[in-house]
Amino acid sequence: MVQKLNLNKEITELTKSNESSLEVLFNYYYPRLYHFSKSFLKIETGIDDILQEVFLKVWQNRKKITSVSTFNAYIFTITKNLLLNEIRRRLNNEKIKDNIQKLSVAEEYRDFDNVEYNDLKEKIEHIINELPDRQKEVYILSRKEGLTHKEIAEKLGISPKTVEYHIAQSISFLKGKIKELGLVALLYFYLFL
Prior knowledge:
By secondary structure, this protein is mainly α.
């Protein structure tokens, strides 16, 4: 059985300079950050360097992190800023300019802070609440409580295939709605949902 990650514990240990907690957090967030970065930049070159820099900044500023919420806001903001910097750098490179010309970033996304992060989180919670009751219940058990498909099936008295169906439907619905909120909301989706 997969052990559920205790983010509060890992972040507390990180603030105490526990390097193994940084590794645990890296392993947890890296695939999400990588997937988003790849879809955002439309190429894979340079993503590893960006993500290493994200976690270097996390380590350097570990004493400022006070909770899961501040950690999430912090990693969210760092990743967004580094990706925007990479896009600006690539736009200045004439060879790559044509490949990413269609990407544009609105000015309001450049100065993102905790208030905006929390506002976005609230909007996404509202979207999650729009899910049909059973889909919402399955989604929350999976994404927020970290239960496996088998555990959810046993808890709700449904088959694991039904759980998979509800999760797939939920993610499809959420992705569509969140896409309407823009680029920063998509980053939140890939990182935290």
